[in-house]
Amino acid sequence: MPSSKNTHSDFTQPFGQFKSRKVDHDEEYIDYLPGYRYRIWHNDQSASFPDHKHAALEIILCTRDVYTVNVGEEVYKLHEGDIIFIPPMKVHSITAPESGERFIMLFDISFFDYFKSKKDILDFFSTTRVVGLNSTTHIYPLVFSSLNRIISLYFAYNEINEIEIYAELLKTIALMSHSPEVEVSENEEEKVITHSEIYQKFVRVLSYIEANYSEDLNLETVADTAGFSKYHFSRLFKQYTDSTFYDYLCKRRIIEAKKLGGQGNVLMLTGDLTVGVNVERSEGFKMQIKSAKGIKIVDEVSITDIADEVYRTAKSALEKHPEAEVVFITNGFPLAVTKAIRDLGRVGKTSLVCFDHNQEIFSEIKAGVIAAAIGQDAFGQGHDPIIWLYNNIVAGEKLDNYIPCRLSVVDRSNVDSLVEA
Questions:
Q1: Is residue 308 part of a domain?
Q2: Are both 276 and 189 inside the same structural domain?
Q3: Taking CA 292 as the corner, what is the angle to CA 290 and CA 293, rounded to the nearest 5 degrees?
Q4: CATH code of the domain covering residue 139
């Protein structure tokens, strides 16, 4: 995640090094990345730019100190975390501090020619737009996340990244142009965005997740990196990302799994759907699988809470679907499923993903029959609600509809630390 802790060498141009600005009178001709229609700069020099204009849409993300941007008659003070959208062909100037840092993103807007809504989009961006941490709009965290994703993709050059860069740009434009709350303040002082400390903490949290998403992360550990209690952090994370911590982490892991070629056929064994936990697990699993295009659910089979019947149902379903590489079970009796896998001689061909932690399950993980077991955090489910209720009654803190509990997953990478000698 780009931040003031990065050095300039982290953001060297992918190729086609820039030579010099080309300005005729006050019009600048953008030196786009060769073969592409965009260019992104990381600038930590105290370089100011006098009045100029260009045909590109310019987006500036301020990451350190304060910049003054003049657009026409308007003056904007950009603090850490502020984002400004400068329309094409608008005369503007930038005054830099002695130790500032910013990212400048320039995009050719000619691709809008193919959109029916081109006029509406260009009309919207005919006015300078600013969003920041203390904006009234709820879309700031989403815009901030998309732009940081664009920056990361650009400087980690890969030709395929071009598609993702434009996808994130279009997402940003859709968010900006369809949100009725995005406004330009008439009061000059209201354009000054503060909360730099919150911004830095937010960047630090996302950087930590980005670097450690493949590890056994939990809410408490990540909250500690930002200096928050897990209860306060949970609320802030939802506010700034429009996602719970565990949903965000899960989606990040799925994205990486797809990059690694994640694919396969899954057989679902679903317990009684009149029981809430089975519904939540079933629907949650299917929702996440939809975003992993290479993974297919071959069948969803109902099972009971009787071990022998679970065994017979699992065995019959596996005989019907020999292509199933993974079985996902929502309720108890995972060992009945591993017995079916063994009896069919499918160890090494089909594995199980289940819930609960105990020594028998750990042994099956070591044997390669269970791929992963998801813990239910029995202690946390008893302990944490008391804390939440106390904070609600004593401190008046609002309760969310859902209270997150720790998600712990045991697989071959960490099972040895849990198996009793």
A1: yes
A2: no
A3: 85
A4: 2.60.120.280
